Amino acid sequence: MQQLALQRYGPHTADTVVRWRELIDQLKPLPDIEKLARVNTFFNQLVRWRQDIDIWQQHDYWATPLETMARREGDCEDFSIAKYMTLLLAGVEVDKMRITYVKAQVGPDSNANQAHMVLAYYDSGSADPLILDNMITELRPASRRPDLKPVFSFNSQGLWVGTAAAPASKDPAARLSRWRELLQRMAADGLD
Asked: Which residue ranges traverse the bilayer (predicted)?
């Protein structure tokens, strides 16, 4: 991936990929909670939030971790995807993580909601998940994030609706075309 980063984006991105790979290697022996905190911090410090239309000239584009590291900017989906893939590579079990589409309450008006995406980590199947977010950098349990209302969540193994314990589908790529396209682009980036 470092060679690919150098060819596509130049030495600055290749150096970032080296730092990212070093982070992954350092994380492997650590407990999950430490992995979560360090990955959340890494991407929240590296990447500046911007809308897809400004970065990609598209209304909704899901960037690969390499694309996000190259641009050093992304929207909430890009943060969540990069954190998810990094934690997978660092040894966090896939069934403990879900990329979660939420309605986020913005401002003092409780009726003002916007689409947002976060990464949820479940220590056990029925646990209150920890939320990795680019807007609030502190890891917090979902019970301390009343501003977020889950709509659906997914990972490589399933798609869940709302806060359901059982997946509605075991093939998220069949229902989420952007996820399917992203998986293909990540494979081309060497992340399969």
From this structure: none
Contact between residue 125 and residue 165 where contact means Cβ atoms under 8 Å apart: yes
Total-model pTM: 0.91
Give the range among 29-38, 48-57, 111-120 with minimum mean pLDDT: 111-120
The count of other CB atoms within 10 Å of the CB of residue 113 is 16
27: exposed, middle or buried (Cβ count in 10 Å: 0-12, 13-18, 19+): buried
pLDDT score of 134 more than 90: yes
CB contact at 8 A, 56 and 63 = yes
**CATH number assigned to the domain with residue range 2-188, chosen from the 4 options 3.10.180.10, 3.40.1160.10, 3.10.620.30, 3.40.50.300:** 3.10.620.30
Measured distance CA(160)–CA(178) in Å, rounded: 16
